[in-house]
Write a structure and sequence with these properties.
binds zinc ion, 8-stranded parallel sheet, TIM Barrel, 14 helices, zinc, hydrolase, metal ion binding, 9-stranded mixed sheet, Amidohydro-rel
C-alpha cells in the first residue's frame, strides 16, 4: 500500500539542496519513505493521505550525527570523571563500563536516540567498542528498530590492554580473531547497502591506543571486502599525538596513511590535532572528519581546525560524541557550539549559522558516504524536522528564522519524520513511552555506577 504525506504552509523550507533553496510558504509532498516534491505550497498537491499543517514552522532536513557512544548515557556527570582530560577520564570510567549488560545497552541506546530525535537528529552513527557480560551490537540495532531512527551501527573493539601498553584494563579487551569474526557476523546479519537503508554497519576499532596495528589493518581489509564504512578516533588531544609518536614513530595522519585508513569510506572522530599534512591527506583522499565540539571543550582537547579543513575541501560532519564527555546529546545545540567554537579559535567569520547547519546535514551525510540523506529534494529519503517558531527561544529572532536555529536557544523539534514516518508528533515521541524509558534508564544507571 502506497501512502502519501503532505507537510504544508511552512513559514520556511530550508532545503540545503544543490541550489541552497530557502522557500517561504513551502510544502513537501512525500510518498512512502521518499520525497516526491518540494516547493511553494500553492504549486504542490493540496491533499494527501496524511496532512500536517506547518504554519509558523521552519522545516529542514534531519540532522545527522556522525559520532556517539550511546551506552555512556548511563554514566553522565559521574563525579570522579567530571574534571579530567581524555586518558584519565577513560581510566576512571572503564571499570564502571565493565558492568554493562545487554539490557543496559538496549535501554541506553533508546534513551540516547530519544534525546537525539527530539533535538532534530534523524540519522545517527554509534560506536560501541566494549562488550562485557554478553553485550552485542545486536542490542543497539534492536533499540534503533524499536524507536525508528536511521542507524549506522559501528562494531567497535579494544584489543590492547594495560599489560601490553594499551589504555584499557586487560579484562575489557577482546581477542582479535574473535573481534573480526563477530564484525563479519553483524555485517552479514544487518548491513543494508540499498538506497534509503535504515541500518548500516561500520567497522570501528576504538583508537590507535587500544588496538594493534594488525587489527587496524585487518579491519580495513574486512570493511573493504564488504564495502562498509571504517571509523575510529584520531588525533584527539596532545597525549594522543605523543602516544602515536612514541609507539609508532609517526603522527596520527602518517599512521592512518600507512595502514590504508584513508579514503571515501573512512571517517575519523575529533581530529582536533590534525596537522597541515593530515588536512591535505584527508582532502586528497576524501577521508571524513566527525567534529565533536562539546566533547573537545569538555575534555579540554582543543579547537579542531574546521575552518581550515572546510577551505581545504575536507568532508566534515558533526557528532555529539559519547554522553559521558558531552554530556548532552542535543544535535542542534551541537551545531551551535560548532559555530561558536570556530569563532573563539579563528574569528567571527570562521563559521556562519548556515555553514554550521550544512556541516550537520550535507556534511555529515557525505562523511557517512550517503547520497540519499542530508538535503530535501525529489528522490531523497523523507527525513525531515520542523521547529515551532513561536517558542520562547526564538522570540525576536524571526528576522532570519533559519539562522535563529543556531543563534538562539533551540527547543526540541515539534515534528520529526524519519523515512516517511512521523516519529515526533507535536513534540512527542510516537514510538516509545518516554517516561517509562527514562525511569528504567535511571534505575540501570544507578545499578551500573553503584554496583
Ligand atoms: Zn568518541
Amino acid at each position: 500500500m502506497m501512502s502519501t504525506l503532505l507537510l504544508k504552509n511552512a513559514e520556511l523550507v530550508a532545503t540545503f539542496d544543490n541550489e541552497q533553496r530557502e522557500i517561504s510558504q513551502g510544502s513537501i509532498f512525500i510518498r512512502d519513505n521518499v520525497i516526491e516534491q518540494v516547493g511553494k505550497t500553492n504549486d504542490l498537491p493540496q491533499e494527501a493521505d496524511q496532512v500536517i499543517d506547518m504554519t509558523d514552522h521552519v522545516v529542514l532536513p534531519g540532522l545527522i550525527n556522525t559520532h556517539h557512544h550511546m551506552y555512556q548515557s548511563l554514566t553522565r556527570a559521574v563525579p570522579l570523571a567530571q574534571d579530567a582530560e581524555l586518558f584519565t577520564w577513560l581510566q576512571t570510567l572503564y571499570p564502571i563500563w565493565g558492568g554493562l549488560t545487554p539490557e543496559m545497552i538496549n535501554v541506553s541506546t533508546q534513551t540516547a536516540m530519544a534525546e537525539l530525535l527530539l533535538s532534530g537528529c534523524t540519522t545517527s552513527s554509534d560506536h560501541l567498542y566494549i562488550y562485557p557480560n554478553g553485550c552485542t551490537l545486536d542490542d543497539s540495532i534492536e533499540a534503533a528498530e524499536t524507536i525508528g531512527m536511521r542507524f549506522h551501527a559501528c562494531r567497535g573493539s579494544m584489543s590492547v590492554g594495560e599489560s601490553d601498553g594499551g589504555l584499557p584494563p586487560d579484562h575489557l579487551v577482546e581477542n582479535e580473531a574473535a573481534i573480526l569474526k563477530d564484525t563479519q557476523r553483524v555485517i552479514e546479519s544487518y548491513h543494508d547497502a540499498n538506497r534509503h537503508a535504515m541500518t548500516r554497519v561500520g567497522v570501528a576499532p576504538c583508537s590507535p591506543f587500544s588496538v594493534s596495528r594488525e587489527l587496524m589493518r585487518d579491519a580495513a581489509l574486512l570493511a573493504r571486502e564488504y564495502k562498509v564504512g571504517l571509523h575510529t578516533h584520531l588525533a584527539e588531544n596532545a597525549n594522543d599525538i605523543a602516544y602515536s609518536k612514541e609507539k609508532f614513530g609517526m603522527t596520527p595522519a602518517e599512521y592512518v596513511d600507512d595502514l590504508g585508513w584513508v579514503g571515501e569510506d573512512v571517517w575519523h572522530a575529533h581530529c582536533v590535532q590534525l596537522d597541515d599534512h593530515g588536512i591535505e591527506l584527508f582532502s586528497r583522499t576524501g577521508t571524513g572528519v566527525a567534529h565533536c565540539p562539546c566533547s573537545n571543550m569538555r575534555l579540554a582537547s582543543g579547537i579542531a581546525p574546521i575552518r581550515k579543513m572546510l577551505d581545504a575541501g575536507v568532508k566534515v560532519g558533526l557528532g555529539v560524541d559519547g554522553s559521558a564527555s558531552n554530556d548532552s546529546g542535543h544535535m542542534m545545540s551541537e551545531a551551535r557550539q560548532a559555530m561558536l567554537l570556530q569563532r573563539v579559535g579563528f574569528g567571527p567569520a570562521a563559521m556562519t549559522a548556515r555553514e554550521a547547519l550544512t556541516v550537520a546535514t550535507r556534511g555529515s551525510a557525505s562523511v557517512l558516504n550517503r547520497d540519499d540523506i542530508g538535503y530535501l529534494a525529489p528522490g531523497m529519503s523523507a527525513d525531515i524536522i520542523a521547529y515551532d517558531l513561536n517558542a520562547i527561544g526564538f522570540a525576536g529572532g524571526l528576522h532570519d528564522p533559519l539562522a535563529a536555529l543556531i543563534f538562539c536557544a533551540t527547543p526540541t523539534v515539534n515534528y520529526s519524520i524519519v523515512n516517511g514516518k512521523v516519529v515526533v508528533d507535536e513534540g512527542r515521541l510516537t514510538t516509545v513511552d518516554l517516561g517509562l524509558l527514562v525511569s528504567r534508564h535511571n534505575e540501570l544507571a544507578k545499578i551500573l555506577v553503584n554496583g
